[in-house]
Amino acid sequence: MKNPVIELIGLTKLYGSLKAVDNLNLEITKGEIYGLLGPNGAGKTTTILMMLGLTEPTAGTVSVCGYNATSNPVAVKQKVGYMPDNMGFYDGMNALDNLIYMGRLNGIPESMVKERAVELMELVGLSKAMDKKAGTYSRGMKQRLGLAEVLIKQPDVIILDEPTLGIDPAGVKEFLTLIKELSKQQNITVLLSSHHLNQVQQVCDRVGIFVEGRLLASDHIDKLSTHLFSREAHVVIITLAHPLHNIEEYNQQLLKVEGVNAIEVHGNTIEISCTRNATPEFVRFFVEKDQDIMGVQRKEYGLEEIYQRYFENTLTENQTNGKSGSIFQRSFFKKIKK
Amino acid sequence: MENPVVYFKGLFSKKLKSNALTVAGAGNTMTHRQQISPFAVIVRKEIGDHVRSWRFIVLLVLIVLTFLGSMYVSLTNLTNPAASPAVPDNGLLYLKILTTTDGSLPSFHIFMSFLGAILGIGLGFDAVNSEQQNGTLIRLLAQPIYRDNFLLAKFISPLIVISALFLSLGLLMIGGGMVITGVSIEMVEVLRILTFIILTVLYVGFWLSLSILLSVKFKQATTSALTAIGIWLFFTIFYKIVVNMVVKAFLPDPAFLSQTDILDYNNLILGFLRFSPGQLYTDATTVLLMPAIRSLGPLTMEQMAGAIPAPLSFRESVLIVWPQMTGLIAATVMCFAISYYWFMRREVRS
């Protein structure tokens, strides 16, 4: 964790009595793709706006690329490309002119701006629709134009607010691949916010779970899942050709395997929970019993489950001890830091 | 976009990076010379938008028609002694072209006192809120520009457009007048007409900055347009009525007052009327375009006693309208300052 590109310290934003962002601490290092996850109204957009100096924090500091975003927003904006969630373009101008305008605003010399804009339009796959009015663009095309616009300033950091909103699944995949490639090749730091968990899961190096203005967890996805689901970390589902007859006998024998917690049998599928990865032993066991194994599957915990967990936790906690979640948060952070 | 990675390897990483390197490497002197400041970029784009917009074309047609109509009326009535005011000067023909009327149409500067307001409101009422509604504002502000650049550009670019408009109209009038009458123009007239144009631009600028203020305040463009038109209607129609009503209710009957008291009260009423920017504008332009007018308020017989019936010099006319000009500038700056205050620290969300 050296030399973070984005560093938030004790960031707080109040709207009246409502805490939109509550004492947020976050560090994002160079070249990383960080996913900010949370339900609607969790404070993701507010946090992003504060990073760009478009909103003033009530307390705490934001520094991006070594500049304080609140007191020196122009320097930050030179380094950061931002794509808002529902952006608009000047509908009366064609797409290329829109892009050129943004290029000029970023101080790209007049002699190069057109050339670079055309290159970027090709890059995002809009070279055929370059001369169309931006008003006629579809949602997905606008998204790509937005990406081209983010890239024209050759940013060190890209911040994408809900980039996958409103595009079809194929488009999402294409878009995210593009972002990932870009980040890897140019060593660009990417921060993207979303509430679509599975999409973010594909590209992010690290994710932060953000609920009601608080960052509940921030780590790699696999670490998060091992941490959360430590009791039932490894679940193996084995599908057999024929249903088992003497279930009890099998259960007894399987439970003798070290670390097995629970066994569930549904017809010809058997779900075994285990504290360690004992998949080979299970397979060997069934082979020895002359059972035909049709499939062996290890259950992975995706963000969906992680998210669900955290969400449930906050809900129950809110019910028990009001809205003060600091104890939970603190204990959680301790665990994460280990 | 079959395979984005292929695109990248070829284009983005090599070409753009090398471009960036050449820019950085070729020395900052080159880039500095080529670069235009973001402010100039926005102004350029805004002017382009205005000139091409239907709204501006409609306003332009409206103003040009008014101009041609009033020019026609004044040119046909130039020789008619009844229509032209009894001015003791025989020169200054071009000022007469601007002010003479036979009563069928108001003269151009009177027309401008309400058309100018429409023009200012029309060009500014959606300056900020439409960009916010379209989601372009947040994109724009995410670029490395200062917020005040944006607001200033929104104010300056329509002002440049209307300056060009009125300057060309003025020059058109002078040129047309020369062709039709064959009389050469005097320096004083050029100065007065130029000052008139500056004053008109200033007046439009006031309404422009008021409508920008409203466009910062209200999220919907229609709300800000209606409010601006409401303010304009209030000042052009109702304000006079209200002042008269208040005067009748509070001031004593003039029949029982001495000469000096009436004078004082008259000045007081005029002072109140001058809260209306339209009044300021008509006062100022009337004095500028009619050099025979020597005061905007009532004059006593003693004051008039020694006066020689000759037109005032340009400097003296300007001195008379100086308070009006200052008032207009102050009102414009005040509106702009408030919009600046509201806009600078506001949270911009799409």
Q: Can you give a write-up of this model?
A:
The complex is a heterodimer of chains A (338) and B (350). Chain A has 338 residues and is α/β, with parallel strands linked by helices. Chain A has helices at 44-51, 73-79, 95-105, 110-123, 139-151, 169-186, 197-203, 221-228, 247-255, 279-288, 303-321, 326-337; strands at 6-15, 18-28, 33-37, 59-64, 67-68, 80-83, 157-161, 189-194, 206-211, 214-219, 234-240, 260-266, 269-274, 293-299. In chain A, a hairpin with a 2-residue loop joins strand 1 and strand 2 (18-28). Chain A is elongated, with a radius of gyration of 24 Å. Chain B is 75% helix and 0% strand. Chain B has one domain (36-344). Chain B contains 15 helices and no strands.
Features:
heterodimer, A: alpha/beta, Rossmann fold, Alpha-Beta Plaits, 3 domains, 6-stranded mixed sheet, 40% helix, elongated, disordered C terminus, B: 350 residues, mainly alpha, globular, P-loop_NTPase (chain A)
Summarize the structure in short:
The complex is a heterodimer of chains A (338) and B (350). By secondary structure, chain A is of the alpha/beta class.
User: What is the CATH topology classification name of the largest domain in chain A?
Assistant: Rossmann fold
How large is the count of helical segments of chain A?
12
Number of strands of chain A: 14
Outline of chain A:
elongated
Q: Helix coverage percent of residues of chain B?
A: over 70%
Radius of gyration of chain A: 24 Å
Structural classification of chain A: alpha/beta
Amount of helix of chain A? 40-55%
Low-confidence stretches of chain A: 320-338
Question: Structural class given helices, strands, pairing of chain B?
Answer: mainly alpha
Order of helices and strands of chain B: HHHHHHHHHHHHHHH
- Chain pair forming the biggest interface: A-B, 50 and 43 residues
Main sheet of chain A? 6 strands, mixed
- How many domains of chain A? 3
Mean pLDDT of chain B: 82
Distance between the termini of chain B: 29 Å
- Main beta sheet of chain B: none
Domain ABC transporter (chain A): 6-237
Keywords (chain A): ATP-binding, Nucleotide-binding, Transport
InterPro entries (chain A): AAA+_ATPase, ABC_transporter-like_ATP-bd, P-loop_NTPase
GO molecular function (chain A): ATP binding; ATP hydrolysis activity
